[in-house]
């Protein structure tokens, strides 16, 4: 990997490693827990969301649409109400993490093929917004950290819920 690409990639890799530590030991009930009032996104929803968003960025960097079979496997970014899609109660933590790991491997492969010049290319996201690949890579790490705060809060709420 070229130096600047490697630096940006490292922020994503480090953030993903931090996420794996944060969710270590999550069981099925906690995976589906939606907070004390039942109106928060669950850890499962957030993990799936992070994987889907990162997957979209990988294909933006490639300048390609996501293949249909991959779209079917990962599902949509949002449901018909503009919210994070729910996950099946049968979805396991291991399944979500395997899918996210697969996306991280695609992301790593893509970064290995990017040059320092490539990261200044502009890509379109969210219909009409534009960003450089450099910004997109940074955003992947920042977006993960943002939702890690939600996951940490859910874990704290869940622990309090069990103590009642």
From TrEMBL:
InterPro entries: DinB-like, DinB/YfiT-like
Top-level taxonomic group: Bacteria
Signal peptide per UniProt: none
Domain DinB-like: 14-151
Protein name: DinB family protein
Taxonomic placement: Bacteria, Bacillati, Bacillota, Bacilli, Bacillales
């Amino acid at each position: 990997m070229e130096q600047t690409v490697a630096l940006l990639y490292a922020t994503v890799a480090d953030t993903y490693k931090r996420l794996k530590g944060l969710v270590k030991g999550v069981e099925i009930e906690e995976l589906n827990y939606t907070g004390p009032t039942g109106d928060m996104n669950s850890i499962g929803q957030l993990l799936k969301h992070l994987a889907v968003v990162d997957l979209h960025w990988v294909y933006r960097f490639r300048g390609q649409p996501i293949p249909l079979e991959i779209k079917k496997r990962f599902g949509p970014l949002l449901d018909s109400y503009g919210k994070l899609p729910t996950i099946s109660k049968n979805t396991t933590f291991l399944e979500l993490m395997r899918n996210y790991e697969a996306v991280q491997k695609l992301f790593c492969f893509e970064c290995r093929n990017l040059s320092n010049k490539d990261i200044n290319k502009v890509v379109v996201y969210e219909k009409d917004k534009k960003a450089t690949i450099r910004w997109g890579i940074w955003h992947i790490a920042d977006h993960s950290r943002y939702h890690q705060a939600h996951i940490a809060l859910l874990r704290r709420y869940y622990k309090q819920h069990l103590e009642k």
